[in-house]
Structure formats: C-alpha cells, structure tokens
Amino acid sequence: MSDFTPDEMMTIAAARALKTDDVVFVGIGAPSAACNVARLTHAPDITLIYESGTIGTAPSVLPLSIGDGELCETAVTTVAVPEMFRYWLMGGRITVGFLGAAQLDRFGNINTTVIGEYAHPKVRLPGGGGAPEIAASCGEVFITMKQSTRGMVEKIDFMTSFGHGAGGDARRKLGLTTAGPTLLITDLAIWKPDPETKEFTVTSLHPGVTRGEVEAACAWPAQFASELDETPPPTALEIDTLRDLQARSKAAHEGRAA
Amino acid sequence: MAAFVPLAEALGSYLHDGDSVAFEGFTHLIPHAAAHEAIRQGRRDLTLIRMTPDIIYDQMIGMGCARKLVFSYAGNPGVGLLRRLRDAVEKDWPRAIEIEEHSHAAMANAYEAGAAGLPSAFFRGYRGVELATVNPNIKSVTCPFTGEELAAVPAVRPDVAIIHAQRADRRGNVLVEGIVGVQKEAVLAAGRAVVTVEEVVDDVTDVHPNACVLPHWTITAICEVPGGAHPSYAHGYYDRDNAAYLEWDGISADREEFQTWMERHVLGATPDVFAGRVAHLRRRAA
Q: Is the pLDDT assigned to residue B278 strictly greater than 50?
C-alpha cells in the first residue's frame, strides 16, 4: 500500500494504538475516525464513549457532532450528561481519552480556549468542554493533531488541559494518579514522552517522512529516539475501511444518501 | 401546573429582560423555535446559560439579546467556531459580552446541584488548568473525611429553563428520550420551565418504568411546536440537519449576511414554519 495521504496515515496510526478491550472517551474529528477504524478492523469489542452520554456506540457513519442520533441508536446504553461525567469519566472507568488540540506544547499540555490573552483574545476558540477532566481522569491520554509551527508551540497561550505540566513528576505533585499523555500521533510521526522528563520524543517516522520535515513543522526543538522506527504503511484493509467510513460520513453530513 | 399555551404567550409571560435562562439540549433536542421566539420578542440583557452554546446562542448573541454567557464549550459541533460569539468577545459587536467559562464536568455538576437544591457542587476537577485562574467562581474545598482537595463551583439556578422534548401528555407530563443531556436537571434547577414538544398525546407515563419523564407539576408551560428543534433533531421524529449546521458557518461569517438571514428566517417567521423545515428529515419508515 503506497498511495495514502499524511492525514490517513495519522488516523490509521492512531487506530492501531487502541486495543479491543479499551474503553475510550472519544473526541470529535480525527479521534472519532481513528476510534471507529479500530473498531472496524482489529478492535471489534472496543467500547466507544462520546460525552453526550452514549456508551458502547457503533455508528455506521462518523458523527458530525458528539451527539448525532446514530450514536444513541447503536449504543449499549445512553446516560444523562451529569452521570456521564460523574460516574463514568471521573469515576475512573475510562482507559483511554482521545484528544485533539489547537495548541500543544512538548509536555502534552493542550490549549483549545484562546489564541492571545484570555481577556482580549485574538481568536476565541470553543473552549475545553470535557477535555480538562478527560485529561485528568482517563487512564492515559492519546493526542492526535496535524503538525505545524502554529499548533506545536514553545508555550501554549492557555492551559486548557493539563498534560505533564513542566515535565517530570508534575502530575504526581498535583495529585493526579493517571498517566496523562502517553502518545502523540501526528501526520508525520509517532511521539512518546521521555520516561524521565516527559517531553514528547519522536519514536517513529511515517513512511517517506524525514527528520527535517518533522523539525520544520514543530516550533520546539524536536527530540528523536536513538532507535527510530518507521511506521508501517496502512494495509489495504485499514485504508479501505477509513475511506469507506469517510465517504459514507461526507454523504450523510451533506444530506445525501450514503 | 403546566399550562398549554402558544409559544409567543409562554415566552412573553415567563422570560423577561435581565433573566438568567438556560436553553438546554446537549447536541439533541435543542429548542430552536423557542430561541427564535425570544429573539422576535426582543429580549435584552439575558444571562444565557448552557453547556454547549451552539447556533441558537450564536444567533441570540448576534442579535444583542445577551449580557453574559455561562458555558463550557462554545462551538458549532463538528464544524468550527461560533462566529457571532467570536465577534462579540473579540470586537464587542453588537455589544460587549461577559463570559463565565467552565468545563463540562463542572457545568454538569452545577446543574445537578441546582436540581438538588444545593448551593454548590464538589468534584475532582480543574487540577492544574488555567480556567481556575480566570473564573472567580471556580474554588476548592477540602473533603472533611479524607482531606482531599476538590474543585467547587456554585450551583446553576436559572430563572428560567427552556427545553424541547418529544411528547407531553394531556396532563402536562413530559417525556424526553434519546440523548437526554442535562434537561431534567435544568428544569428542576430553574424557577420556571417552558417546554416545547413535538406532539401532545394521551399518556406518556406508559412508555417504560424508567423513562425520563418530567411530571407536570415541575413544568410551567408547554407549547406544541412540531419540528421545534430544527436543525437539531428529535430522536424518533426527525434527523439532525447536518447540512444546515455546515451552512451556518458561512451565514454567520459576515455581519450583514447574518442580519439578512435573521430577518428572513427568524424575525419574519412564526413557530409554525418549523414543521415544514423537518419534513425532509423524517425517516421514511416513520
């Protein structure tokens, strides 16, 4: 399989990181695509939870919002939003939280609130939604985003969701007992936190991607593992599954028959 | 005791300038028809409360109805940012707006505390995050039993809650099905509750013993407005009009285009147009 886009590689690499016994709190966009590709390929028994209250959902098209009707229709059960957050998320029942970011720093701290100053923002973004407590309460957090120097920044403008703070044992000092960000999957590479410093370090380059390209699309000086892997390219099954899902979703969102 | 009244009369009687009001609906059953009625009636200085302000609050803010917004995620779900809200926050157009921002977990807990008649909610949240430094309503308490430090936020107790639901029965009991969000909590937390419904039927209490039913004595007024959630959806009645959410991004991008659209589709319309707007979204099997 050689014909695939960097976006497709990102989604498929993220899908591979999920296991069939995972219970995943799914964000919208790329995380949702990755989680459903996992469910439709190697992880058929994965439990997908969307914050609208749907537990164990199996949509045939990717939802445009986190509360599309099909999520509820295909769910094992649908609970009220206070129960979702109290019993299921903050009750510690989620193994993986899957988040995107507008801005990300090297320690996995996320900004989805504002660009610029909070009181006088240049760009008012949607805000944290479920993310602050997803980042704190899930067993571990996977982050997926396209690389750019605007997105992967030296210092985020606002700490919407706590990753590893200033690094090291910052989470433990705050009383957080969960692992926090353990994986960053971009359109160029797979990154994992250094065991000591917790700084994200490139462990695998996607096929055809160079170190220089990763460095050019990241505003902090990127660190690379001493033994760097190459991400296996998408299999035919993976790429077909993703493209089918996206075609069905696009048709459905535009109001056409799938 | 729930009164069955036309939507214009319900909002005219129970939503006043300066009120705090929650038009709730977590990505489902969003009370669009009621929000449009509030805009037509020219309500001003409202404190708008909602976990997920989307198109209706974008419209109300763009039309100058709101003084303050209390929220946890302000976006057009799956599409992008709320452009009228951005214009108000970034450029004070059409007026400056005060914001009180929380996380979903905080708002959900705050509604539940409101429904329970408690003054505040405690939960394990906001650790290490910056909202706590910009929102003075985020504080902490120490658990008297374990010593654990927990986040505390005040309960949400709106003057008015406005929701859309599938059905009411003739006594005024209201059934909510599907993604139920925080609507039950919002109604129980509020001083008054106005509910628009798809239809009025003989009985809603025979659906299922654990169904989400709001007893008639918890509701102030009920208005039958078929299609009243459009472009949101009503589980079992019609699907979400995703194309309309995508279109809103363009309409809301420009002040003049926004105003023209609002004049045509809101100011110059009545609640009975909603039934026609969902006709193509009803399932063929239904």
A: yes
Is A51 one of the annotated active-site residues of the chain?
Answer: yes
Distance CA B112, CA B185 (A): 6
Q: What is the pLDDT of residues A163-218, one digit of tens each?
A: 999 999 999 999 999 999 999 999 999 999 999 999 999 999 999 999 999 999 99
CB interface of B with A, residues 138-167, below 8 Å: 148-149
Closest residue on chain A to B111 (Cα): A82
Q: Which residues from A are below 8 Å from B185, CB to CB?
A: 80, 82
| Bridge partners of residue A143, in order along the sequence | A99, A184
- Within a 10 A sphere around the Cβ of A27, how many other Cβ atoms? 26
Check CB contact under 8 Å for A132 and B125.
yes
- List, in order of start, the domains of chain A with CATH numbers: 6-253 (3.40.1080.10)
Annotated domain spans of chain B: 3-102+157-281
Class level of CATH domain B3-102+157-281 = alpha beta
Give pLDDT tens digits for A125-153. Answer: 999 999 999 999 999 999 999 999 999 99
Copy the structure tokens of residue B184: 């039950």
Residues of chain A in contact with residue B85, where contact means CB-CB under 8 angstroms, are: 124
Assigned token pair, B84: 């009228």
